[in-house]
TrEMBL record:
It comes from the Bacteria. The lineage of its organism: Bacteria, Bacillati, Bacillota, Bacilli, Bacillales. It comes from Paenibacillus glycanilyticus. The chain crosses the membrane at residues 29-50. Keywords: Membrane, Transmembrane, Transmembrane helix. This is Asparagine synthase.
Length: 53
């Protein structure tokens, strides 16, 4: 399995859950934080995928 694939996929799942939390008006701040963590995982996973071709 390629290095960086797991963080990229995990980041996608976390970003999707953060985006779903943004729709609920009560949890907008939590949704923003979860979405940010997910996007960070996606970026770091993509960097690992590119770096370790």
């Amino acid at each position: 399995m390629r290095e960086g694939l797991i963080p990229a996929v995990l980041g996608t799942v976390v970003s999707a859950s953060g985006a779903s939390l943004l729709r609920k008006s009560k949890y907008k701040l939590v949704g923003t934080g979860v979405l940010g963590f997910g996007l960070a995982h996606m970026v770091l996973g993509a960097i690992d995928l590119i770096e370790h071709r």
